[in-house]
């Protein structure tokens, strides 16, 4: 079989896997709120979850904030988000399973296709699987739990660790930060709570996987990670949703607190279907000599707005955002980063790689702020865009606010197309045009992929190869 034949067979296998992930599961739900958002719906969510009174008050206050705040007008067009026709809470199971065999078969089949149970056995210290609005499975290795590490879903954390949740919830991302953080605070459900005690280093990643299955649904997980002084943890999240003609909304909030000398890495491989609006707020507070690393891969969704942020609040704190976006026809991915230097001798690095094909549009939107008095601070921003078609588009909106004379700031950007010489050279070595494009794209995103654990780098490259399967010809 020639190279084109082999490639065609491989593409067919990958297509079958993708079609499986984007096909809806046949699931019976035990609770579903009516469409639309009101005070009654917010109270119903709190009641079903049996939450304490303080959380109910937080939700109701955030709902009022959501009603007052206007949606952002400076990014992609999100006017078609139909808040009145979404289901804001869907519960798939009675309880969170501790064994995969206890997860209902239709749901378990999806995670088997993704490979999460196998990954857990091989290279994860803990797993949380969320389906619609609630976690359906959760586990943590016993030897890790014995070190004092807490890794559980947020709903369980509210019940079992109320003193920690009440102390930190909404301190990094307040409800009033933006319209969608207010919405999340009002109707949040699921997400992860991670607490790493001082000096504990989690050797292998913790992973969460999110699935939206029903049509016209909103998923609003809330994740809170606290790394005590001198600790380390790597948290990985992935996500999928089936294809529908109607839109769904994913609007998560992630709050991370990195204390003195601690290090947190947060990796995302986002593969939502194109009917999903992905409007997310992710932010970290980093204290003295702490390190925060965001590794952000965006391949799916119809519209994405996501700007992982680092607030460097202690001397010699360091933040890094490595971002990759791939937008095809019908997609707008508006991603980037924010680095706020709130202490002297802090440093930040932002690397953005974007790929646009068909009529897809990618945008880098970033902010670096160094106020006066933050002496010895440094920041470097690099944005590179690759256009695969004449109608593809890429935009860059960098914003640099530097008020300290003794700070170092650099910015570089490039945009280009795949050259005919590159394609000719690779095809002359026996590759098909499709294989040549895939190889060039893989090389382009290599600075991001190399920062992933091997298994996740393979997954990212597999998804990109699938996306590139109709980029030419």
How much helical structure, as a percent, in the residues?
Answer: 25-40%
Multimeric state: single chain
Unreliable spans are 1-18
**What is the structural class?**
alpha/beta
Number of helical runs? 13
Q: Return the average pLDDT rounded to an integer.
A: 88
Alpha-carbon Rg, integer:
22 Å
- Let me know the largest β-sheet: 12 strands, mixed
How many beta-strand segments? 24
What general form does the structure show?
globular
What is the first-to-last residue Cα distance? 20 Å
> What share of the residues does DSSP label as strand, in percent?
25-35%
Description of the structure:
The protein is an alpha/beta fold. 27% of the residues lie in helices and 34% in strands. It has 13 helices and 24 strands. It has helices at 3-21, 39-48, 53-68, 105-114, 116-123, 142-145, 154-160, 162-168, 179-187, 420-428, 433-444, 446-449, 454-467; strands at residues 31-32, 90-91, 126-131, 134-140, 150-153, 192-196, 206-211, 218-219, 222-227, 232-240, 248-250, 253-258, 263-270, 276-286, 291-298, 303-306, 309-312, 318-327, 332-341, 347-356, 361-370, 378-387, 393-402, 408-417. The strands form three sheets. Strands 5, 6, 8, 9, 11, 12, 14, 16, 17, 19, 21 and 23 form a twelve-stranded mixed β-sheet that branches. Strand 3 and strand 4 form a beta hairpin. Helix 3 (53-68) packs antiparallel against helix 9 and helix 10 (420-428) packs across helix 11 (433-444).
